[in-house]
Amino acid sequence: MTDAPTPDIAPEDAARPPPLRPSLLDPLFAPARTLPGVGPKMAPLIEKLLGTPERAARVVDLLFHLPQGGIARRMVGSVSEAPVGEPVTLGVTVVAHRPPNPGAGRRPHRVLVEDATGDISLVFFGMPRARVEKMLPLGAHRYVTGRIDLWDGTRQMIHPSRIVDEAGLAELPAVEPIYGSTEGLTSRAISKLAAAALDRLAPLPEWQDPAWLERNRLPAFAEALRAEHRPEEAPPRSEDPLQPAPSTPARRRLAYDELLASQLALALMRARQRRKAGRVNAGDGALVRQIEAGLPFALTGAQARAVADIRGDLAAPRRMLRLLQGDVGSGKTAVALLATASAVEAGRQAALMAPTEILARQHFERLQPLAGPLRLRLMTGRDRASERKATLAALAAGEVDVLVGTHALFQEAVAFRDLGLAVVDEQHRFGVHQRLALGAKGEAVDFLVMTATPIPRTLALTFFGDMDVSTLDEKPAGRQPIRTLTLSTDRIDEVVAGLGRAMAGGERVYWICPLVDESEFIDLAAAAERFEDLQRHFGEAVGLIHGKMPGPEKDAAMARFAAGATKLLVSTTVVEVGVDVPEATIMVIEHAERFGLAQLHQLRGRVGRGSKASSCLLLYRGPLGQVARARLEMMRDTEDGFRIAEADLKLRGEGEVLGTRQSGMAAFRLARIETDGDLLEAARDDARMIVERDPGLKGPRGEALRALLYLFERDAAIRLIGAG
Ligand code: ADP
Ligand code: MG
Description:
With 724 residues, the chain is of the alpha/beta class. Among the domains are: 72-178, CATH 2.40.50.140; 286-472, P-loop containing nucleotide triphosphate hydrolases (Rossmann fold); 482-638, Rossmann fold (3-Layer(aba) Sandwich). The protein is built from 28 helices and 22 strands. It has a seven-stranded parallel sheet, with helices on both faces. A six-stranded parallel sheet has the order 17-22-21-18-20-19, sandwiched between helices. A hairpin with a 2-residue loop joins strand 4 (109-115) and strand 5 (118-124). Helix 21 (626-637) packs antiparallel against helix 22. The longest helix has 26 residues, at 249-274. Mean pLDDT is 82; it is low at 1-17 and 654-666. Residues 332-333, 578 line the site of magnesium ion (MG). Adenosine-5'-diphosphate (ADP) binds at residues 297, 299-300, 303, 326, 328-334, 452, 476, 578, 580, 582, 609.
């Protein structure tokens, strides 16, 4: 085996055709549209629900699309007390039909229904009026089952999964599973499809330790899937609405399977990495000391510790994979600078990669005056062809020490003379494959990954395996606490008046506009409208920045705000990550109830960066649901990023905490870290033991474990074994 280049998965491995899938799994990887009962109308709906741009939905995708809950027959709730977000059955009378006006676009047909305690809307998209009226005749009594959602403060049930009369209720199965569905594909239709998919599920060899299964009273894999799709008793509910419902034994089993697959893949990768030597990326320390001495501040204790950790890693002849986590404003940039200095001291180059153009530019501009003799260069997707050519030439010639940039750094044409260290800022926005691509640009590249989202330990383990972690748990001296207030939007006039006074006193304000919709255009319209409105009050002092602006305009808007030419900057969430304007002291977040905790925390971190007292106004539109209220109260009560991250994890699940939704690398399909995270360490230990005993997965359990890796699509790891 050669030693260079050595990304985690060498290109020659990636190009090799995947080893044959155990034929036993073939029926599960067949297209879902081949299941009985799928016609030309249903096929595209299944794709919409479970397909991805890269591949059509498969039988296994249906099997892994577990019901979100189940509902016991005759457990009829009352309209006023039915919980939001959970499946319920309500006994109601039909009061009114509100079909969409013809030509009103994709408006739904709403049906108002009531019981003795209150009323609620049933919502139907794209369904003929006559059909809705036939299902729910005016004045009739019906039992409707579905999930209640909050939309714009009102409670509604979109596409009830069942609508039956008294006789129908008596015939319902003991427990009806409720699936996350898509428009036009009902929960019941999915239930039928799942049943057909289950029929294709042959018994598989057991990959778990039988003694462990018995001790924990867990069913076999196929049995567990059947139990989840065809529940015989209602799944457990959580007492506390803010806590997720506990897992059933079947769910635990499936969660453990998935966690073991992921930990096993990581363990195989690590085993391979360990066989490759790293290089020493530290010199005599003179350059690092020189740059540190030139900083306009003394390092905090936490920064000094992190720098020492990193120096230790770089000086050792193995590859560094270290996570530097520190709350917003904790000073990660200076640590990164000293790390790059260390690599340069050893005669190598470093790359610093940021998730957005603005941030890359900002890093570059802030690092430049601190960098002493280091030769920095910026590269973004926006560079002119001639600039780009010059940069590439300088890079290859070794005339650039540290290349700062965006995704542009991954591009094939970018070749370093000798890349030794890659620093990746705000890692969770990047996919793992991107990290690999950057690693492929040098020999034994050391990695420093920086994140401002404090990651609870369980999650760090899942996601990064045994990555080493340095934490900046100390803020630079002289920071003032941020005063956080929650206010109803009804009081927006008072807020505007208050801002007027503050701006007259020289303060600078961020105004973040709400996330209205998935569509950026709608976001944009909201921001533009607020901008005009605030301009009427404050004229030229108001600026606007949003994601759709061309890059140079964005920079200009940011620069005007940083220089104080504008004093109030209306923004969509583009300022979210890392932007540093120490003079900004007020953060207004409109419709704060629509943001997640982590995002609110990030946004708030844009103020409180200087020595002046700062405040954050969270404007909400009521009435607030329980979770939204809990989030805003949490924000008001603490600035501790770790507490916020833990709470966020409980409230929303792991995909959102890591922001993996956007980057399309949701960690798990079946395991829920909130409820099954306790299994992680066991899975890790199990995986390590497996790799120690049978590194090629060749024994009988090894065979079964290969099937497990395939099933959860961690089969890239199998290629690593092959490549030994
Ligand atoms: P983040 O961790 O959010 O990336 P930054 O590195 O942007 O934080 O640092 C935030 C601000 O704090 C910057 O203006 C930086 O110059 C300043 N800073 C960093 N370290 C210190 C320190 N030890 N003492 C005082 N100010 C510091
Ligand atoms: Mg930063």
